[in-house]
């Protein structure tokens, strides 16, 4: 072994250790941001669905929708932090103009929830001037009326004996056979 090659393995191992620690730190920060992004999207999805379910064309429905978003139990930072500064908007169509408090609230059937979280960075500031990262999420949910129910309301639905009767021809205490709904492509009673 030559004397001028001595210590090369030590220098290489030292530099490799520094590079591996930098990559590990990068993975920790980016992985944490990825988890936060998923938490925010989960919150936005569930909050927009809860808000859309409360919309009924009245100002009281708008207030209930906003309260449903505020009462959403989902949190971020591994369920340790509540969301603050969440924005809730309403519209008459999924791509329509969004309003915070529409008046009158008639025909407002879509809710959009936008959430933001600011997370501190631990390892990325070593190679970047940023010390925090802002992560956002957005979701839209709405109500669409179903104009007809040819296949029944539930997976197993009784067929109406008399569609003009208030109870569709059914009598309390009587037994009825439940069938899987008809395939609309094959006909009503297939």
Shape type: elongated
Pairing-aware structural class of the strands and helices? alpha+beta
Gyration radius (Cα, Å) is 28 Å
> Spatial order of the strands in the main sheet?
1-2-3
> Quick one: biggest sheet?
3 strands, antiparallel
Unreliably modeled segments: none
Strand content: 5-15%
Tell me the total number of β-strands: 3
Taken in chain order, the helices and strands follow as HHEEE
* Mean pLDDT across every amino acid position: 83
Separate helix tally = 2
Brief overview:
The chain has about 190 residues and is an alpha+beta fold. Helix content is about 30%, strand content about 15%.
What's the structural blueprint in terms of helices and strands?
Elements: H1 8-54, H2 59-70, E1 87-91, E2 110-120, E3 132-142
Antiparallel strand pairs: 1-2, 2-3
Protein architecture, described:
This protein is an alpha+beta fold and about 190 residues long. The chain is about 30% helix and about 15% strand. It has helices spanning about 10-55, 60-70; strands at about 85-90, 110-120, 130-140. The protein has a three-stranded antiparallel sheet with strand order 1-2-3. Helix 1 runs antiparallel to helix 2. The longest helix has about 45 residues, at about 10-55. The chain is elongated and about 105 Å long.
């Amino acid at each position: 072994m030559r004397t001028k090659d001595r210590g090369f393995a030590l220098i290489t191992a030292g530099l490799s250790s520094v590079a591996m620690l930098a990559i590990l730190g990068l993975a920790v920060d980016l992985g944490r941001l990825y988890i936060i992004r998923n938490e925010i999207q989960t919150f936005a999805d569930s909050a927009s669905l809860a808000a859309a379910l409360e919309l009924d064309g009245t100002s009281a429905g708008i207030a209930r929708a906003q309260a449903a978003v505020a009462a959403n139990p989902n949190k971020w930072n591994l369920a340790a932090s509540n969301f603050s500064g969440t924005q809730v908007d309403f519209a008459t169509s999924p791509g329509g103009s969004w309003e915070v408090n529409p008046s009158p609230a008639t025909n407002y059937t879509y809710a959009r929830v936008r959430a933001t979280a600011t997370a501190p960075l631990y390892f990325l500031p070593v190679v970047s001037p940023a010390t925090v990262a802002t992560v956002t999420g957005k979701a839209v949910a709405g109500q669409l009326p179903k104009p007809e129910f040819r296949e029944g309301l539930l997976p197993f639905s009784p067929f109406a004996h008399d569609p003009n009767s208030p109870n569709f021809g059914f009598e309390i205490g009587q037994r009825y056979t439940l069938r899987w709904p008809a395939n609309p492509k094959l006909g009503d009673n297939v």
